[in-house]
Amino acid sequence: MRNGTSLARASRVLLASASILPALVWAGGAEASALCIDTTPIYEIQGTSHVSPYEGQTVETCGVVTAVGFQSYYIQDPHGDDDSTTSDGLFVFDTRTPQPEVGELLRLRDRVDERIAGGADTGNLSTTQFAFPTILGREAARVPAPVVIGRGGRMPPARKVISNAEIDPPINLQDAADAAANVFNPWRDGIDFYESLEGMLVTVENPVAVSGSRQFGTFSAEVFTLANRGRFARPADARTARGGISLQRHPDNRGDQNPERIQIQFDGTLYGSTDFPAIKVGDRFADVTGVVGYSFGNYEVNALGAFDIRPKRLRPQKAQLSWPKRLTVASYNVLNLSAVEDDDAQRDKVATQIVRKLRAPDIVALQEIQDNNGDIGNCGEDLAPCSGELDADETLQGLVDAIVAAGGPAYAFIDVPPLVETTDDNRDNPDTFGGISLGNIRNAFLYNPERVTLEAFEGLTRDVLTARGVSVPTAFDTSRDPLEATFRFRGRPVTVINNHFSSRFGSTPVFGGPQPFVQAAEAAREAQSTAINEVVDAILEDTPRANVVVLGDLNTFEWTNDLKDLLPGSGPDRVLINLIRKIRDDNRYTFIFEGNSQALDHVFVSQNLRRRAQLDIVHVNTDFSRMLDDVTASDHEPLLATVWPRR
User: Fold this and answer.
1) Cα separation of 42 and 80, whole Å?
2) What integer best gives the mean pLDDT of the chain?
3) Coil, helix or strand for 36?
């Protein structure tokens, strides 16, 4: 089976070709090789659980090499057990060379290991694997046929990652006892469905992209998809008009997480190239063949070669709202923008979007504005702030200049630098505001002095919140202080409160060990919602018909209790209305996370502004690829609201 051409390389190409795959399939009913006599089959090693019943035991097994990756390869039982609850595949980690070749049947001896990449604290599931096994024998073999994921084979569950009854009380699938006690049901639970295919050769049938492709370094990229063009996604109205799939509503975000999403992974070795495709939401593919792995909290199909892509005609939008007699207010998270040269292309793109896509709003509320030198550190002996810089005047002036160059107005700007207390204990990492380390992100405003007049502004620090009688003045201690500003438009005052609530970073994976999955900073966002509600209450108590706008990156969804009840108030105490309710189409998303379209950015208005207020989520970023050569303005969409201030 060896010749001058690498069989491994040739086999990877063959696996990517649907026209050649049938020639590699074992004939039905073929007898087991003598090489495999008295071995433990892979499907028994995998078992019907997230943790192998053989964990820690040394066994001998037999499998055909289906793919060869970087310092690793995948093997699969040559026949399988015709049981869709057990995986026939196994991941093998081995840095030794030469590596086995695709199409070799190997007899291996090793200890069964359940490895959690990054450690248990990540919340990741474990992967059943061998590491540096002893190869006891080898012979030529045919590669098993891929399992089809889709209508022509196995359909992934479309509603539950894991059934509610199985996580009350909570469990941890990293734990062997919890995993063994878990009811393993691949037909009902998405987490079990993909576990039942771990390490196996599969073909995703007629996928459609529900995210843009994103590249991580030169060796890795990913895109999230649905099989069968998404025709079997549930609920029936889950798809967005632009081609994505919406995260489903639930007060605590414990509802349908769309387990039918399938991550296609591009690994430079397994894929056979580092020329990864730039994919956008709605693009359709030919069948994708690969091996099922797990990393960074998700199951993934590692593609084994290129495939045809049919692009969708999808373009960045332009805001539909344009009312010269109304006040236009935008909210935009600009992804750690700073004044450094490396951000020049991003700055120009943001500026162009503000002018051409948002129609140069009167007020632009910005989040994630970095200090002037970005993430450059400068820790001095005198314990000066390790960021070396707290001011963001150059960052904001640079953006204003870029807006003028793009044909927009000469905006004025305001911000309040974060307070960073540097001590011996925190001098190496003084950041308490999130974002890139040492960047000191904060909220800021641009405003057009030809259209509005700035009357006052103030950072809502702990001291300010205390003075205003807020019950939770410490709500923003580990986040970004809100920035409040009062502007006058056509003789009428409008107070705008710009927010960036605590991030969801640090949550455990949806397809992770701890179930239900942990949502980071839930208590913090609830406190922040309460604090802003009380700030607005105080404003309205003093001026009952005040014009108030509360907006920003709130890092949670419109149907959670934070934004449904706490921030706006409820019943007769409701003081704010979320303008997302005024969007009539189903493109109510500002962010795409792991293929789920979701709204993290919001605009609320007081009752005095409710009647004529409108909102437009302008889709210019999240539906498109983020490859290394792409210029990325942001991973969020900007929002544009029009309001009619009243006296």
Assistant:
1) 8
2) 92
3) helix
Tokens of residue 77, six digits? 């039982």
Nearest alpha-carbon partner for 635 in 210, 211, 209 = 211
Q: How many Cβ atoms sit within 10 Å of the Cβ of residue 420?
A: 17
Rounded to 5, what percent of the chain is helix, strand, coil?
20, 30, 55
What is d(CA 333, CA 637) in angstroms, rounded to the nearest whole number? 8
Burial of residue 275, with CB atoms counted within 10 A of its CB: 0-12 exposed, 13-18 middle, 19 or more buried: exposed
Structure tokens at 286: 């030919």
Structure tokens at 427: 């001098």
The phi-psi region of residue 38 (left if phi > 0; otherwise alpha if psi is between -120 and 50; otherwise beta) is left
Q: For 88-132, what is each residue's pLDDT tens digit?
A: 999 999 999 999 999 999 999 999 999 999 999 999 999 999 999
The backbone torsions φ and ψ at residue 89, rounded to the nearest 5 degrees and listed phi first, read: -110, 160
- 451-502, pLDDT tens digit by residue? 999 999 999 999 999 999 999 999 999 899 999 999 999 999 999 999 999 9
Contacts 24+ apart (CB under 8 A), 71-74: 71/95, 73/99, 73/100, 74/199, 74/201, 74/291
* Closest C-alpha among 506, 529, 507 to residue 519: 507
Tokens of 250: 């639930």
* Local structure of residue 607 (DSSP, 8 states): G
pLDDT of residue 646: 85
d(CA 204, CA 206): 7
On the 0-12 / 13-18 / 19+ scale of CB atoms within 10 A, 30 is: exposed
The conformation of residue 55, written as its DSSP 8-state character, comes to: T
Is the omega angle on the peptide bond into residue 156 within 30 degrees of 0, that is, cis? no
Q: What is the pTM of this model?
A: 0.92
Instruction: Supply the DSSP symbol for 114.
Output: E
Q: What are the phi and psi torsion angles at 611 (to 5°)? A: -60, -45
User: By percentage, how much of the chain surpasses pLDDT 70?
Assistant: 91
* DSSP secondary structure string for all residues of 351-378: HHIIIIIS---SEEEEEEE--TTTT---
- Regarding beta strands 58-69 and 214-216, do their DSSP bridges make them parallel or antiparallel, or are they unpaired? unpaired
CB of 174 closer than 8 Å to CB of 511: no
What pLDDT is stored for residue 4 in this prediction? 35
Phi, psi at residue 275, to the nearest 5°?
Answer: -90, 80
What CATH superfamily classification does 7-140 receive? Nucleic acid-binding proteins (2.40.50.140)
192-225 burial by CB neighbour count: b if 16+ within 10 A, else e? bbbbbbbbbbbbbbbbbbbbbbbbeeeebbbbbb
* Average of per-residue pLDDT across 193-216: 98
Equal CATH topology for 7-140 and 154-310: yes
CB 605 within 8 A of CB 319: no
Q: What are the structural domain ranges in the chain?
A: 7-140, 154-310, 327-643
The CATH label, of 3.60.10.10, 3.40.50.300, 2.30.30.40, 3.40.1000.10, for the domain at 327-643 is: 3.60.10.10
259 and 265 Cβ atoms separated by less than 8 Å: no
Residue type, 24: L
Nearest alpha-carbon partner for 138 in 162, 164, 103: 103
Tokens at residue 422, please? 């540097």
Q: Tokens 């310092």, residue?
A: 71
Fold for the domain defined by 154-310: OB fold (Dihydrolipoamide Acetyltransferase, E2P) (2.40.50)
* Close Cβ partners of 211 (under 8 Å, ≥ 6 residues apart): 223, 224, 244, 281, 592, 594, 595
